[in-house]
Amino acid sequence: MTAVAVSEVTDATFAAEVLGSDLPVLVEFWATWCGPCRMVGPVLAQLAVERAGALSVRKINADENPETTRAYQVMSLPTMILFRNGEPVTTIVGAFPKARIEERLDQAR
């Protein structure tokens, strides 16, 4: 299995990399000071590898990218939003075990 990076997006690259993606994209809004975000990181890295080709996983630093964070009304970290065809289809707020995140992703199909 090859490593699939969970790459960072920014206010400047969000439209091209997330809204313009052919694949569904799971975006984690996070911050360096957010403890639960550190817990979710490895889970999202696993999902990126396991669902490569069917799902893209990206992260955006909420503190450094206020435009996108405001646009999607992110009030709590971590917040994960699944985008399909440029539209948000489900939102997960908080740190959850991998099985629960997968369940929410699968329900959003």
TrEMBL record:
Domain of life: Bacteria
Disulfide bond positions: C34-C37
SUPFAM superfamilies cross-referenced by the UniProt entry: Thioredoxin-like (SSF52833)
PROSITE patterns per the UniProt record, alphabetical: THIOREDOXIN_1 (PS00194), THIOREDOXIN_2 (PS51352)
The keyword Cell wall biogenesis/degradation is assigned to this record: no
Keyword set includes Zinc: no
Gene Ontology terms for molecular function: protein-disulfide reductase activity
Name of one Pfam family that matches: Thioredoxin
Keyword annotations: Disulfide bond, Electron transport, Redox-active center, Transport
Gene3D superfamilies associated with the record: Glutaredoxin
Gene Ontology BP annotations: cell redox homeostasis
Cellular component GO terms, alphabetical: cytosol
Similarity remark: Belongs to the thioredoxin family.
Name by which UniProt lists this protein: Thioredoxin
